[in-house]
Amino acid sequence: MGAMGHTEEQLRAMFREWIEDADDTAARHPEWRVKVHTHSRDAVARTGYCEPKERHPDAPASVRTLNAVIWIYRDDQNTPGPAMRELVALAHEFGHALSHMRGKQTPNYKAAVMKYDAKLAAASGTHLEADAAALASQPMTEAEQDLVRDEECRAWDYGREELEGRGLTDFRKFDEWRAEAMAIYERNFERFSSAT
């Protein structure tokens, strides 16, 4: 048995099913729609990313619109990474999608995470457009850090709930990776609390 009492093959099947079966998301959350893609890892070396989408104000209530796009990054887009790692990344990014769809991502949070992402990109040497470069040059306030931290915790919590709903019961790896990810945020907050 692999992580969480499941074989690598079982975990890989859960990951594929979650990506391929949009109706499963619709069954749990009928008014929401999420697309998941895999992609080659970016310069920031993320494991995943959630891009929230705003519902068009003129869309009829009966029409399901795309609420979020989730990207799971791999060293090679066509070569799966460790199944447990990808499943946990998907759960966390889906947690961000749920947070967005439940209205938890405030405009202040969105501004704070834009600044965080700009500072992260600048630190990795990525070329930034003028607006992002201006954001990256500003220190992150404690209030902005709290907004980003709270959203990250919420995404981890929602992701865990989704995995529990899919039958997973052993969360040792999930908890370990959550702690590692939050420690990275704390180190970055320390670096980003001053102008760059």
Describe the structure in your own words.
The structure is a single chain. This protein is mainly α and 196 residues long. The chain has one domain. The protein has seven helices and three strands, in the order H-H-E-E-E-H-H-H-H-H. Strands 1-3-2 form a three-stranded mixed beta sheet, covered by helices on one side.
SSE map:
Elements: H1 8-20, H2 22-28, E1 34-40, E2 48-52, E3 68-74, H3 83-101, H4 107-123, H5 130-136, H6 142-165, H7 172-192
Parallel strand pairs: 1-3
Antiparallel strand pairs: 2-3
Helix pairs in contact: 1-3, 3-6, 4-5, 4-6, 6-7
Beta-strand percentage range? 5-15%
Order of helices and strands: HHEEEHHHHH
Rg, rounded, reads 17 Å
Low-confidence stretches: none
Total number of helices: 7
Described by strand count, sense and barrel closure, the largest sheet is: 3 strands, mixed
Number of DSSP E strands: 3
Which features characterize this protein?
single chain; 196 residues; mainly alpha; 3 strands
